[in-house]
Amino acid sequence: MNFENINIEELLPQRRPFIMIDRMSHFDMVFTVTEMKIIAENMFVENGFLSESGIIENIAQTCAARMGYINKYLCSDAVKIGFIGSIKDLVIEELPKVGDELKTTVEVVSEIFAITLVNAKVDIGDRLIASCEMKISITDMETQDK
Q1: What is the CATH number that goes with domain 3-140?
Q2: Is the pLDDT of residue 46 over 90?
C-alpha cells in the first residue's frame, strides 16, 4: 500500500492540535514507522524543543497508527481508543528542536488480547534520541467521526 495516500487522521483517535505524527512510512505486523517534523506551533514544544511528554506521545501515537491501520485497512473496522498501560526503561538522550524530523519505530514484542507490548525508538537521521518499552491497551470504544 502507498502510505502517502493515507491521511494520518484516519488512523488515529486523536484530533488536531493533539496529533504528534505526520505520516506512516512503513507497516507490517511487527514493525511500524512514522515520521514527524517538529514545528514551533506543536503544543509540546517548549523553548524551541519538543518536551519529554511530546516524545512519549509521539511513540504512543505510532502505536495508535499501527492499530488504526490494522482496524481500518485489514479488518474493515473502526479505529479504537487506546491507553498507555506502562512505560519501562525510558531513555531520552536529547530533546529534538524545532525543524528536526523524527523517525519513530515500534517493534511488537507481544500481543495478548487487547494489550500490545512494543520496543520503541525515536531517531533524528542516524542518531537515536529516545527509546523505551511501552505497553498499550486497546478498548472497544470507537472514535467519533469528524
Answers
A1: 3.10.129.10
A2: yes
